[in-house]
Amino acid sequence: MTTEAPFVAGPHEDEPHDTGINNRLNWLRAGVLGANDGIVSTAGIVMGVAGATSERGTIVLAGVAGLAAGALSMGAGEYVSVSTQKDSELALLDKERRELAEEPEDELEELAGLYVEKGLSEELALQVARELTAHDALGAHAEAELGIDPDDISSPWNAAFASMIAFTIGALLPLLTITLVAPGARVAVTVLSVLLALAITGWASARFGYGASRRAVVRNVLGGLFAMAVTYAIGSLLGTHV
Question: In this structure, is residue 3 part of a structural domain?
Fold first, then answer.
């Protein structure tokens, strides 16, 4: 005869629900996007220049310029994008605060209605809405109505720095590889190292984002291979005619 384990409310060990998931996802998105862009764009630049010339100084100059411009561009772009998102979230929360202060009963009915739409009976939905409102009115309404956690607002600076740092780290791989390896093997070694790095970032993005690893890896690798092939072909063509 077996006895059932007592019910304990809360997440199970294999799926912890940590706080700050919104900012963590923003960091992940900015970091993975920055690393991938750093690897692919810098590899494309140095491969294109390597296709046109074998001069190490020219390749290094082009790669460093691409790294600096790309890192600053990624950081600025992330800051502007996430700042806009943050402004929207704060504006929606301010609106919700005003409505809770001016129309508390209407807001309670609205919250209960949302739980009814999710499958609760009207009686239970109203009870849940009242208890959650008494505990944390803004948090309950913001989550149910807006999908926003007032304690986990997006951080534009975090996203910007994550993107810049990840871009720089990603860009250093093809830049160092193509400049340090002997001229006869630099293209092949750079392609292989870039594809390996893209496979790792693809796997990491899927691992931390709970996505499909194989699909992410294939997508990253094929995209990087295509970019390098196109830029190398353009560099080779222009190098013989310019």
Answer: no
- Which are the contacts of 234, defined by CB distance < 8 A and separation ≥ 6? 48, 51
Exposure on the CB side of residue 170, measured as CA atoms within 13 A: 34
In angstroms, the CA 150 to CA 138 distance is 8
Q: How far apart are CA 98 and CA 6, in angstroms?
A: 42
Beta-carbon-side half-sphere exposure of residue 197 (alpha carbons within 13 Å): 26
- Per DSSP, the three-state class of 106 is helix
> Rounded to an integer, what distance in angstroms lies between the CA atom of residue 97 and that of residue 139?
10
Contact 11, 17 (CB under 8 A): yes
Residues 28 and 160 sit within 8 Å (Cβ to Cβ): no
The model carries a pTM of 0.72
147-197 residue pLDDT tens: 888 887 878 888 888 889 989 999 999 999 988 888 888 888 988 998 998
Does 159 map to a domain? yes
Q: What's the domain count of the chain?
A: 1
- Which domain covers residue 162, as residue numbers? 21-236
Q: How far is CA 171 from CA 32, 58, 63, 90, 193, in A?
A: 13, 17, 8, 35, 12
Q: How far is CA 194 from CA 39, 42, 106, in A?
A: 7, 10, 57
Residue 144 CB partners (closer than 8 Å, separation 6+): 111, 114, 115
Classify residue 219 as exposed, middle or buried by CB count within 10 Å of its CB (0-12, 13-18, 19+): middle
